[in-house]
Amino acid sequence: MNKKTAAAILLAGLTLTAPVFASDDTVDEYSHFDKYANPGTQTAPAIVNDWKRPADGGEEGILTEKSEVQSRSRDAGAQRRAAARRSGKTGEAAREAADQPPEQTYEDGVLSRTKQGAAANSETRTLPLTITGDEAQYANESGDFIVTGNVKMVQGTQTLYTTKAVGNAKTGDVWLLEGGTLVEPLNRMTGQWVHYNFNTETGEVRRLEGKSQKDFYRAPHAVLENGMIVIDEGGTTTRCPAVKHPPCLSVKAKTITIVPNKRIVARDVQVFIRGVHVYSRKTWINDFSQSTERTMPRIGWNDNKGFYLALDYETPVGNPLLKNPTTFYMHQIYYSKSHYKPYYSLKHDERDFYLRFNDGWVYDSDNDAIDEGIWLHKKTDWGLFLKPHRIAKGLPLSVSGHITHGLWKYNVNRWQSWHTDKVVMLKHDRIYPLGGKKLYLDLSAGRRWVDESNPVNQRRWGKHLSSNVYQGTLGFNFSPKWSIWETYHDEHKTSYNFSLGQPDFAKEWRSGISWRPDDHNTFTIVDRYNSDKGSYTHGHYSTTYIWSHRFCCWVLSGAYEQKHYNGGDNQWTVKLDLLFW
């Protein structure tokens, strides 16, 4: 099965991802909780031009008993037959459609390509397809084949099991009339009836269900089209493993379109808690790599902010199936101390970069002199972000960067400044010094430049400030229950107007340990040490204790930050959230 199509069947993306110790932070470049996350469990952003990915392409084969099936580029007739099948026409209408010339597929401008283009591209992506079984029949002239008894079909990392496979090696059609099971490294899916064409990348699956990573999914029908999967008769997904009661939380949608390795677009969505419908929404988009939208509201409490209630909302601007969509994001949150602090963002995504425009409130710092801390209002703040790119083939180095510019203003006074931030970072692929996955080393280095328009900043420190940035992490995973890490971060201040995004001190050591005694509890301790001798907080800076307990799908988290320097204000944080939604 073609890699993209097989990946599309992974319905894992129907659920949303979020850190275990979730915060009420807005979707911003800077997160206060990043420094407390276990780096061993973090996933690095994908490198958009990564030559290290397995290259599609391979040799052709022949069909025998215990044999291989040959995938070839389809001819014009095969193209027309596939188009007729997808149109839903039957009988004479289908035969007439098959005699028509090929036309544009799916929807113009929406991840589509001409059928001729699909045929040409399939030649470069085809992997050898191997089919084995107890008995095999093959007609050399027509290309028809029948394989029965313990049938196993292997292409790349995908394996398909069935009891009977019928198809044609020339057209690329395969029917699993008795159903089959697809097994991949992170996915297992079963369909009661399957048709797939390896040349046209089209097909149909009836009554499918399975599990991918942490996600359970079920749908009565799906159509495979142009490397995407379209669930057109409704579908359900959940991450709740419960079998004795309805899922803690589940999502249903009338139509779901999955773009492999990119995003899921669901329409007419309903959200259920323990089988009870709680709310609906028209459209729901989940970006596999960077979406932070959550399905349900969340609550929590923080010393400085008080109690809060938050809900995120994300909707496409225009057609959500465009290859490079534009999305509007809204973060609605209310604090008992700070009151209403909304945040809005508009983002346009491209393969190599993305553009975003922000306007809203961001929590800047815990000022001990002010009960509720300091809030920063970002006005007309735009940014251009270069996604990670490998700098040369064969080198384990990638480069990324960004430039942002906007009017930043504090809520406690009239202090404001046009803030321009430019960053370039060079990162080494994760290193495993001992071979295995237990001991790992992460290294990165870069440069940062910040300009402030505020005259006070210019008179005292200058308009243009810059600093080198160095970071390294050495970690060890003793077992799935125990892990430790040590991080060093070296970066000088590049703005004295605001603390958001600035280092607490120039030279920092962070020591962390995480213990997971069972599937419900996780304990984490992070200790921070300020090695900058010129800082008044030099020495042992703080220790943060984090505990989280999982109730099936809900997680209760608590954190206590103990500040060791003189005048430090200890802080508690408690929150109830949905785990990984």
Plain-language structure description:
This protein has helices at residues 3-8, 76-87, 91-98, 115-125, 455-461, and strands spanning 67-69, 129-132, 135-138, 144-155, 158-168, 173-176, 180-184, 187-197, 202-212, 215-225, 228-231, 235-238, 250-259, 263-273, 276-287, 298-302, 306-316, 326-335, 339-340, 343-349, 353-365, 374-390, 397-410, 416-431, 439-452, 464-477, 482-491, 507-515, 521-530, 539-551, 554-563, 571-578. It is elongated. The protein has 5 helices and 32 strands. Helix 2 runs antiparallel to helix 3. The model is unreliable at 1-23, 52-82 and 84-125 (pLDDT under 50).
Counting H and I runs of at least 4 residues, what is the number of helices?
5
Widest sheet: strand ordering: 16-17-18-20-21-22-23-24-25-26-27-28-29-30-31-32
Radius of gyration: 27 Å
Q: Percent of residues in helical segments?
A: under 10%
Arithmetic mean of pLDDT: 75
Class inferred from helices and paired strands: mainly beta
Reported for the largest beta sheet, the result is: 16 strands, antiparallel, barrel
- In one word, what is the shape? elongated
Estimated share of beta-strand residues: over 45%
Strands, count: 32
Distance between the termini: 30 Å
Low-confidence stretches: 1-23, 52-82, 84-125
Characteristics of this structure?
single chain, 581 residues, mainly beta, 15-stranded antiparallel beta sheet, 32 strands, 52% strand, elongated, disordered N terminus
In short:
The protein is mainly beta. The chain has helices spanning 3-8, 76-87, 91-98, 115-125, 455-461, and strands spanning 67-69, 129-132, 135-138, 144-155, 158-168, 173-176, 180-184, 187-197, 202-212, 215-225, 228-231, 235-238, 250-259, 263-273, 276-287, 298-302, 306-316, 326-335, 339-340, 343-349, 353-365, 374-390, 397-410, 416-431, 439-452, 464-477, 482-491, 507-515, 521-530, 539-551, 554-563, 571-578. The two termini are 30 Å apart.
